[in-house]
Design brief:
The protein is 74% helix and 0% strand. By secondary structure, the chain is mostly helical. The protein has helices at 10-20, 25-28, 35-42, 50-60, 64-69, 73-91, 96-113, 116-132, 136-147, 159-171, 175-191, 197-212, 217-233, 239-254, 258-293, 301-320. The chain is built from 16 helices and no strands. 34% of the residues are buried.
Length: 326
């Protein structure tokens, strides 16, 4: 696997791998992938289907990505892991200068490798970091490039990025650009099947804040009141987003892109864990409230009131966290 993958076609790579392992075209054949079909691929007279690539890659013991592109999946995985680490550092407010250096390095490597997905994620991460550090002009440049990339996720899956871009527009004195952005995001969220109520609520809130900065206070108030009312009625605010990630992951697997599928399915799993955590918080808060209400009158009312207040804060926090502005 030391050949120059940039100059090697799929057919040439298939033949090289087959010969390295001492296999004939008949050895490599299977149901639906005849030795004649393999011969035509190696002669570059036929482009293999995704299904054929999967079967051939499995027999050769390589990834579909490597057979198709010459790039080892482990390089993509390593880049994805380093991206996730840097993104987490930004979200937790860790060593931001170090995270910035990491993201810049990942961006350069992704661009050199032609990894559009990682490049878009790295730009988004840099944009979020720069916005957090108040470097708004640089943040806008990275965020606009990220969401303009065909590899980047749609608004309903990354409200943190689209929200940060709009808020940066406002910080730069251009609230109307934020209004236009959030209008588009809200319209796209409403077109989704299934409907993503969480995304609609978040973009309604974003839009309301942006409109307030342009003098549109009546519509801003209407949007915010409606969004907050619907948020209180939601029984499962993360459910639609989890389902979206899950469907995208399955679609990526069917298209022979396990690297992308792993990213989407990891996101779905993380949101499931977040939903479980929020449900546990809500149950604990409700139990605390019920216990406080059961205390006899004339007892330690100050302590009971403190328990009620803290339990109520916890309950409100558990319910509101999915629709926060960040």
């Amino acid at each position: 696997m030391l050949a120059d993958s940039t100059a090697e076609s799929v057919g040439a790579r298939l033949k090289r791998l087959r010969l390295e392992q001492g296999l004939s075209q008949r050895d490599l054949s299977s149901q639906g992938v005849s030795y004649a079909y393999i011969s035509r691929i190696e002669a570059e007279a036929r482009t293999p289907s995704v299904k054929a690539l999967r079967k051939l890659a499995r027999k050769l013991g390589v990834s579909v990505e490597y057979l198709e592109t010459g790039s080892e999946l482990r390089e993509v995985d390593d880049r994805s892991m380093r991206l996730a680490e840097a993104e987490l550092e930004v979200r937790l407010g860790g060593d931001l200068p170090r995270a910035e250096r990491k993201l810049e390095g990942i961006l350069d490597a992704a661009l050199e490798a032609g990894d559009g997905t990682a490049a878009a994620r790295a730009r988004a991460g840099l944009g979020l970091l720069l916005a957090a550090r108040g470097r708004h002009l640089e943040a806008v440049e990275h965020l606009e490039q990220a969401i303009g990339d065909e590899h980047f996720q749609p608004p309903q899956l990354r409200p943190d990025v689209y929200g940060a871009l709009g808020q940066t527009y406002v910080a730069l004195g251009a609230p109307q650009r934020a209004v236009s952005l959030f209008e588009d995001c809200l319209a796209r969220a409403r077109r989704e099947t299934p409907r993503d109520s969480d995304a609609e609520i978040r973009y309604s809130i974003f839009l309301g804040h942006a409109l307030a900065g342009t003098g549109g206070t009546d519509r801003a108030a209407e949007l915010l009141l409606d969004a907050l009312a619907r948020a209180r009625e939601q029984k499962d605010p993360l459910g639609a987003r989890i389902q979206s990630y899950w469907l995208l992951g399955r679609q990526s697997l069917e298209q022979g892109s396990p690297g992308h599928a792993a990213e989407y399915l990891d996101d779905a799993a993380a949101l499931l864990r977040a939903r479980d955590h929020q449900a546990a918080l809500a149950r604990a808060a409700q139990a605390a409230l019920e216990w406080a209400e059961s205390l006899p009158e004339g007892g330690d009312n100050g302590r009971a009131e403190a328990i009620r207040a803290r339990a109520y804060d916890l309950l409100v926090g558990a319910e509101a966290r999915p629709i926060g502005l960040s």
